[in-house]
């Protein structure tokens, strides 16, 4: 069997596949997030323990030899480790907002734009540049004690294999990697005031690093590859590799990716260019901060259960009786397709006659509008695949097809883990049948009348958003 490991923000999963790409089994474990006053951290030992636990459960459930394993996981954040890959402090999550004042300052003085023009990375508070700069100012001893500032999957790879600290071109893309040379841009490191911390940046393995495991979770000697991180891994797992084709990941965050061979560092700085294992090929990424997390908050606040969502969407008409939601719920604001650290969600059009269904539908529509904004900014011209937890709601998928005004290739299952296996197979020359592994589960067509309705609603959404952004800057 082939094993894919996906170390997510709130859930760690391991999936087993046969040689044809059929998913045999999945094991998962939740992991915690410590949130307080804009700070979002994770316990690295808990995360690594969850990885070992799901791998032990998976290999016990599927009594087959492991041909190889692929590793992926959440991107960004800062995972400070010692020489053995063990934590020197809790991991700062990509959701962390403590560095927002630094980003505000860099937006004002031009640093933000200058970094984007060099690397194609629009920094946000939870990416390594601002977080390392914040730690250098407020927790310098933590940086002094660290051997490397890694990304999530890199820590797991080092612990599973004992290999030296390393990362890959996808994770390194934000914000230090020059997408043309595929090496760190030392001028960016200097501009962010981190030249004296340059040694914390792990070497970039290009192509992705490989090693053999030491026996925790997987049998000793199992071949494993490190990377790419979850967004490009999902693109691989969904078969999004041709220029112009896109992927919408409806997960904790709302990520829009479009494959491209063109590098355009002009225009409004937003999102990033993710380097792939193929030089000259990138993913233009617009990873918005909040996806299903916005709906989860509304469901929790209104007392609606997840299993009620499809029924409420079916009962409530397009437009949600005038209720509108700008779904920018993250405490660190928004990062794509624009950067606005102080932007917050807005609910309008609510009255005593508004129902739970109105609030739920308006939230789903708002997320759809945000996705359309991101996909347009990323340059979508071809087919669109969709994956993530949101695909479990058939009603939401129909709504998304209508809001986006295009067919959706729905890819279900553990798409990130699947992509991690395909990346590992490519690295080891395993020769898997990629089209069979990435075949869509279903195709959802938009309704022409509803698509026309939402095309007008999208323009209204952009108008409301412009006002909200102006208020956020006051």
CATH level-4 homologous superfamily of the largest domain: ATPase, nucleotide binding domain
Number of helices: 16
| Shape by Cα distribution | globular
Low-confidence stretches: none
**Beta strand %:** 15-25%
Helical percentage: 25-40%
Strand order of the largest sheet: 18-19-17-16-22-23-24
Tell me the count of domains: 2
In CATH, the topology of the largest domain is named Nucleotidyltransferase, domain 5
- Rg (CA only): 21 Å
Structural class: alpha+beta
- Major β-sheet annotation: 7 strands, mixed
| CATH architecture heading of the largest domain | 2-Layer Sandwich
- How far the N terminus sits from the C terminus, by CA atoms, comes to 56 Å
Blueprint (SSEs and pairs):
Elements: E1 2-7, E2 11-17, E3 23-30, E4 34-36, E5 39-42, H1 44-61, E6 68-73, E7 79-81, E8 91-92, H2 100-109, H3 111-119, H4 128-138, H5 140-145, E9 148-150, H6 152-161, E10 167-168, H7 169-172, E11 177-178, E12 183-184, H8 186-191, E13 204-205, E14 209-212, E15 223-226, H9 230-237, E16 246-250, E17 254-260, E18 272-275, E19 282-288, H10 292-302, H11 309-315, E20 324-326, E21 346-348, H12 356-378, E22 384-387, H13 394-404, E23 408-410, H14 415-428, H15 434-437, E24 442-444, H16 448-472
Parallel strand pairs: 1-6, 6-15, 10-13, 16-22, 22-23
Antiparallel strand pairs: 1-2, 2-3, 4-5, 5-8, 7-9, 11-12, 14-15, 16-17, 17-19, 18-19, 20-21, 23-24
Helix pairs in contact: 9-14, 10-12, 11-12, 11-13, 12-13, 12-16, 13-16
